[in-house]
Amino acid sequence: MKKQAEQTKSIFILEVYEFAPCERPAYQLHKERYCQCAGPCFLTWKRGVGYFETLRDAEKCIKEMAEEMLVETYGFVVKEMPQNHLVNIFDCKVRRYLKDGSPWRAVSGKNPVFKEGDFVEIPYDEHSELGIVLSFEKSDNAYFVVTYNVLDEEFDKYHTVYCNAVDLLPPSFPVQKKYAAALRRGLKQAKKESADDLPF
Question: Using an 8 Å Cβ cutoff, are 144 and 185 in contact?
């Protein structure tokens, strides 16, 4: 039994994210700089990585960094993986923490924190994209979010993306009127397309 317990012991990987250097504190289009986001977003980068034997130790480190309240800090991610095992990175357990160190969950119990029409951020490794909530899938603990494509003319102007609840954050900045209006138009279009797909 002891050997089995050792084989299933987890390691906790802490990732620290910051706003990219020289990034304005606002949602913007990145026409001149390389970015995989074609809509309103801001750039981020992974400043550091730490490996811990317990979640408690990882959260202690987060608390210590959060107490510094650095303006460039965006947030923290802890990924739990079994040691001595090859795992699918998408299957690991992910926990997110806001820049003040507080745990973040886009679901409270079984109820969604966000509702239709709320503006949200979809965080990636190198940027965080602005979107608007279309719906919540309770069975999957996930959201459908509409994003706004401005720069890539080869694709549709609006996209509906599927986001696990842990991968959705509240806005970091006020949403500019032009982006708010565009996303609301996208939400209206997505709802109409969903209604058109109904079999009655």
Answer: no
Name the nearest CA neighbour of 148 among 129, 170, 173.
129
From the CB of residue 38, how many other CB atoms can be counted at a distance below 10 Å? Answer: 20
φ, ψ of residue 180 to 5 degrees: the values are -60, -45
Q: Quick: pLDDT tens for 103-156.
A: 998 887 778 999 999 999 999 989 999 999 999 998 888 999 999 988 766 667
Find out whether 46 and 15 touch, Cβ atoms under 8 Å: yes
- Check residue 68 and give its pLDDT: 84
Phi, psi of 161 (to 5 degrees): -115, 150
Q: How far apart are CA 65 and CA 77, in angstroms?
A: 13
Q: Retrieve residue 10's tokens.
A: 């987890």
What does DSSP assign to residue 130? E
Structural domain spans, the chain = 2-26+38-196
Nearest Cα to Cα of residue 29 among 147, 185, 199, 119: 147
